[in-house]
Structures are given as C-alpha cells and as structure tokens.
C-alpha cells in the first residue's frame, strides 16, 4: 500500500505528525520512498525538536558542519585545536536545503554543545568565542543553501552568553551586545533568496535598525512580526533609526496579521502610517512593557485605525490615563473578541472608568476577557464586567491574583463565566472559587 500512495498523499499524511520526532523517525525505515518524503519534515526544524530543558545533540551540529564551504573551513582553521568533521562519503541528502525554522539562540546552543562534546581536544579554550564562530559559519551556510526560511528568530547574545543563569546579569553580558556575528543573518549573502518567503519573524537583538531596513527590501510575506525595543542607555542604540526600520518592514508587508511590540523605551513617530498600511489585515496586536505618554500617546491613538482587530492585549503597559485613552475608547472594533489587560495594579493603571468606557463604546463582541495578574483589583472593575456581561456575548472571564477576600456578591452575573480565580493566599497554584 505504501508503494501505491503518491508523494503528495504521503506528504499530506506526514504533515499531521511533523512535530513528532519519534513518529517521523520510525517511518524512515519503511522504504526508500517514505524516507525521501519524511526527510524534509525531519530537517525543516531540527533545532526545535528538543525540549527547552534538554540539551541539543552534538550529532546535529556535526551533520551540518560537513556541508561547510571551503571558505568557512579556512576561517575556522585559524582557531587553534579546532578540527572540523568531513564526510567520509557524499551524504545522500543535502540537509541544509530543508531548513525552514531557524532560531539563533538554538543555533548557538547547538554549536556550544558540539564543542563540549570534543572538550578533550580543546582544553581550556574559550567556548563562547568558538561557539559564536561556529554559529556564524553555520548561519552563512543556511543563508546560502536553504531554499526558504519560513520562521526566523533573532536573539541578542545576552540571552545565550552562558548556561549559568547567575551570570545572566554580569558585565560580560553587556560586552557581547554589540557583536554582529550570527545575529545578523539577514545581512548575509544569500539572505534575499532564502528569506523572501518568510512568514514569521522575531527580532530581539540590540541595534536592529539595519536588519529591519534590509529585510523590508525582500521580505513582503510576513504574517507575524514580533519586535523588542528594550534599549539600554549604555548601548547608545539609534532609537530613531530603529523606529524607521520598524516602519519600513511593516509597510513592506502585503498581509501582516499579528504584531507584537515590547520594550521599555520606544519612539515611533510613524506608527500611524505603519498601522494604516495594514489596517485591513491586522487581527492581533499585543503590547508588552511599554511606557505610554500620559497625555497623548501616538501608539494608543493609532490602534483606533485597526477596525479588523480580533485580539488586543496590553501586558504590563502603563500608564493608562483619561487623556491618552480617549481616542482608543472612542474607536469601534466590530470584530474584537479577545481583550487581555495584564497590569500589576489594575486600579492604578487602568481605571474602572476607562474599562467601562472602552467596553461601552467599542461595540466589540468580546467573548474572552482576561484581567490577569491584577494585584489590588478595584471591586468597581467587577461591577463594570458584571454589568457588561448582562448585555454581551461574553463567554469567558479570566481573573487572576485578585485579593484575599473575593467579593462573591459582586459577580452574580459572572459565576457561570469565570474560568479561574487565584487568590492572594494561594499565588502559586490555581484555586477555583466557583
């Protein structure tokens, strides 16, 4: 039966188990035809098959190192005691061409793990320097030989300096932030062809302006974009250039659907133009750790342009004032079904009046309302939600970290809707009160 199935049918079947490494691997040995159809699934995201708590296998890096160009081998040959593997015979499959999902953090970890496996040869040499050099050359390999990358995550090196979490906030961490090695993949030769079909892009590295501007030239199919703007005063990042890059890459897309922006410091004067270009396709907007202008914030004002929003989230953003919330509360969101507001002190940063104003005027058919991690929740918020639930399509309310004494009388109309309540006296485990 296996022999009679066309390749298209086999690929359709294997797509349902594409995230199950064991299942895919067991199917490799059925016959050659099955093997040829499964190899692309196994090797399109090999860096994502291990769990977060597991270490990557050194065999994975070893396989890719066999495909390095002579130029890459020559550059790495300058590293003392580093001996790269060579294939004893030509591999049956050219594995780098299948890669579709790439994360620079996992790329570094895989390089580091292979070096640790041959530590008896390296002695006391600098693992971090060698790991970055290996990841850099592997990045060149992927940009030159991958047919298409669908998902790309770029992390700054402060996240992956060392496995030792005690060193996470060390001075050494900041010294590496200005490195532009493997974290600059979109600037490598071949990136234009490799990334032209990119669908999901996350950029969390410092000094990202050049990357964003360059990608705006050849990436026009991105559907999910996530950008971090955590700029440290010590790094002298060009905030204006990064804002320009962010504007360019958003406006270059033909159908952006999800946008996530996080950062303690941001200046984005062209936010209105950016959102206007994607107003027909953007359905999900998520903001995290942003410091809003208390008088008139252009970002909050521009959200009103996104009439097709289905999900809107504010996570640890502040402050929300009567002045900067005016334009947002007066906007209409006829498709908004999921509203998430997560701030540490809801009563301080998001008043009951603002919440009521938004729910009343937005004309949004909200079905899921999250008021998450809200210490010192004002009971007036419950009054607002309870009143709204009487005349809406609200299906689920998620309330977390509210208070020690939960006012059951305040939620008469919410008892059948509340999913969970976590009280102050049990902050580490879920405790259902209803």
Notable traits:
single chain, 434 residues, alpha/beta, eleven-stranded parallel sheet, 10218_t:CDS:1
In brief:
The chain is α/β, with parallel strands linked by helices and 434 residues long.
Helical region count?
Answer: 18
What is the percent of helical residues? 25-40%
Count all strands and give the number.
11
**Arrangement of strands in the largest sheet:** 1-2-3-4-5-6-7-8-9-10-11
The biggest sheet amounts to: 11 strands, parallel
Task: Please provide the ordered H/E string of secondary-structure elements.
Answer: HHHHHEHHHEHHEHEHEHEHEHEHHEHEE
Question: Which geometry do the CA atoms define?
Answer: elongated
């Amino acid at each position: 039966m296996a022999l009679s199935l066309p390749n298209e049918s086999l690929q359709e079947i294997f797509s349902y188990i594409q995230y199950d490494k064991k299942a895919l691997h067991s199917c490799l040995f059925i016959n050659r035809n099955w093997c040829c159809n499964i190899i692309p699934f196994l090797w399109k995201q090999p860096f994502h098959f291990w769990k977060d708590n597991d270490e990557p296998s050194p065999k994975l890096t070893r396989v890719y190192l066999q495909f390095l160009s002579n130029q890459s081998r020559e550059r790495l040959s300058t590293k003392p005691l580093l001996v790269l593997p060579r294939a004893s015979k030509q591999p049956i499959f050219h594995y780098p061409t299948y890669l579709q999902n790439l994360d620079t953090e996992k790329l570094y970890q895989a390089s580091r793990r292979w070096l640790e496996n041959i530590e008896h040869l390296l002695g006391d040499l600098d693992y971090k320097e060698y790991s970055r050099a290996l990841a850099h050359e592997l990045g060149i390999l992927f940009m030159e030989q991958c047919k298409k990358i669908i998902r790309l995550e770029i992390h700054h090196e402060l996240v992956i300096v060392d496995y030792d979490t005690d060193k996470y906030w060390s001075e050494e961490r900041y010294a590496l932030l200005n490195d532009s090695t493997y974290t600059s993949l979109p600037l490598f030769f071949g990136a234009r062809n490799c990334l032209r079909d990119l669908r999901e892009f996350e950029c969390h590295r410092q000094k990202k302006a050049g990357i964003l501007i360059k990608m705006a030239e050849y990436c026009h199919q991105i559907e999910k974009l996530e950008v971090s703007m955590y700029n440290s005063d010590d790094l002298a990042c060009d905030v204006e250039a990064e804002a320009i890059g962010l504007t360019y890459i958003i406006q270059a897309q033909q159908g952006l659907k999800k946008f996530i922006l996080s950062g303690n410091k941001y200046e984005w004067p062209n936010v209105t133009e950016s959102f206007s270009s994607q107003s027909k396709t953007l359905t999900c907007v998520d903001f995290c750790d942003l410091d809003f202008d208390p008088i008139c914030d252009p970002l909050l004002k521009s959200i009103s342009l996104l009439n097709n929003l289905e999900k809107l989230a504010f996570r640890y953003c502040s402050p929300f004032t009567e002045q900067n919330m005016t334009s947002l509360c007066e906007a209409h969101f006829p498709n908004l079904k999921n509203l998430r507001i997560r701030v540490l002190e809801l009563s301080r940063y998001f008043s009951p009046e603002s919440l009521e104003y938004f729910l009343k005027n937005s004309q949004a058919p909200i079905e899921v309302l999250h008021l998450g991690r809200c210490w010192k929740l004002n009971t007036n918020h419950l009054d607002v939600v309870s009143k709204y639930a009487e005349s809406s399509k609200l299906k689920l309310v998620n309330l977390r970290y509210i208070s020690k004494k939960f006012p059951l009388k305040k939620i008469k109309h919410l008892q059948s809707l509340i999913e969970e309540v976590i009280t102050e006296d049990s902050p580490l485990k879920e405790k259902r009160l209803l």
